[in-house]
Every structure is written in C-alpha cells, then in structure tokens.
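User: I'm putting together notes for a lab meeting next week and I want to include a structural view of one of the chains we've been expressing. I don't have a solved structure, so I'd like a prediction I can at least talk through. The sequence is below, exactly as it appears in our construct file.
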Amino acid sequence: MRALLQRVTHSQVRVGDEVIGAIGRGLTILLGIHSEDTPQIAERMAEKIAQLRIFADTAGKTNLSAAEVGAEMLVISQFTLYADCRRGRRPGFSYAARPEIAEPLYEHFLAVLGRLGFRTARGRFGAEMVVELANEGPFTLYLDSDEFEV
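Assistant: Thanks for the context. Below is the predicted structure for the 150-residue chain, given as structure tokens.
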C-alpha cells in the first residue's frame, strides 16, 4: 500500500460540480492499493499515518501527530501510485489492485481511521475527481508499506 500525504489547511474533492468531501486542517491522503495488500496492511498504514509526528508544536517543531492535533483526513483512492514507468512512454498499472480488491480495502482503511477517532471525508471510488487543497508548509510525505520496519 502506498500513501501520499499532504498536510493541508483545507482540502476538498469534487465530482462534476458537486463537492463530495471536504476537510479543514489535516491531511489529504492519496491511497494506492497493491494487488497483494490485505486488511492488516491497511490497518498498519492507517495507524502509521495517525501517529506520524508531522504537525508543529507551539515551538514550531514537527513534534505532534495527527491524533494529537485532531487532524481531519480526506482520503482519495489513487491507483496511479502503482504506475510502472520503467519502460516505454505509457505507464503500466498491473501492480495496482483490481477494483473488487481495492475498494473494500479503501473502505477498510477509512473505517480504521474512523475507529482511531478521526473525522474523515472521501472521494468516490473509481470516479473522475478534482481535488483542491492548500498544502501547508508545503509538507508532503510518501509512504510505502513495503518499507515499514517489522
């Protein structure tokens, strides 16, 4: 599982003219799901994101986690995070999970964030969306569950 995190002052996602999800201060998360990902990997990714110390304390140092600052989370399914661009000019997506695997894991990831106490908003799985955000910092991180310490 891969996640691109952007610390934001606000963020929203639209499908057509309709805003379907919006948050204030928190994280916009683009979530890529691999064909071999499991619910346990989704749980580990959600917990990792919740505990990362990426928000500023009163001294301006990044010492506080999303959980500690009451961050909100906007989560967008993003299969293109598994693009394979090694050959040719057209990305391949064979590593990305098929929708029947990816959508339940996306929903599970959102449910875990909810259980951890976060207010979450979401995109629409499989839809063409427009994501608008104000990246605070800017602060952007890329996480890959294959790189987590055991």
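A couple of points you could mention at the meeting. Residues 103 and 125 are 7 Å apart (CA to CA). The first helix runs from residue 39 to 51.

User: Perfect, that's what I needed.
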